Amino acid sequence: MQIAIDGPAGVGKSTLAKALASHYGMIYLDTGAMYRGVALLASREGIAPEEGAAMDALLGAMDLNFREHDGKKSLYNHDEDLETAIRQPEIAKIVSAYASLGSVRQAMTAQQQRIAAKNDVVMDGRDIGTVVLPHADYKFFISASVQERARRRYLELEEKGIAQNFDELVKDLAERDRKDQTRAIAPLKKAEDAILIDTDHLDAQGVLEKIIEIISK
Ligand code: DC
Fold it and tell me: Which candidate, 23, 74, 118, 121, has a CA 20 to 30 Å from the CA of 14?
């Protein structure tokens, strides 16, 4: 079985996808983490998105993989744990520029499809229902206003001890949405056959229950 979850930044896709994966005993694949991993590794090596040959070499040398410890999944490159580094706000600011590259999308999409071919998966991202898993059994597009998403992201980062200015968060989310929606390849978009779930007035448990109810029908 394949469940595709798409939607803008900070809408609660990963919380929902993790809960669904645990409910149905499926694998959860956080595709945003992979794009964040690419952005982190490139910026560390000082490779700008425009440097095509250097980006190709980086993509060829990297080995992004997920490992689980105490029920928590982390993104690794080879044997290096990248999880804390990819969640920093500096990475959120630069990731769209790398995620818009055809070479990056091709490599990530191929890896995501290989994982989905071997496992039952709940995958979350921006292009899962449209590009990565066009034949998914269930497709959901999760939405919420930018103010509500900033409020949620603020609380999430606060819990992790990462301080943020609320207005900056609103600005960053709006800018990231704009870049993700307007890029030429695989933009953030609701698949025609995806079910739209507006979560402005629903908490995480409410969204989960609504989706389980839809699937059980
Ligand atoms: O979901 P997230 O905030 O961790 O995603 C990080 C970035 O990666 C986001 O700005 C858009 C990009 N992304 C993408 O282009 N395609 C995906 N399937 C998932 C994420």
Answer: 118
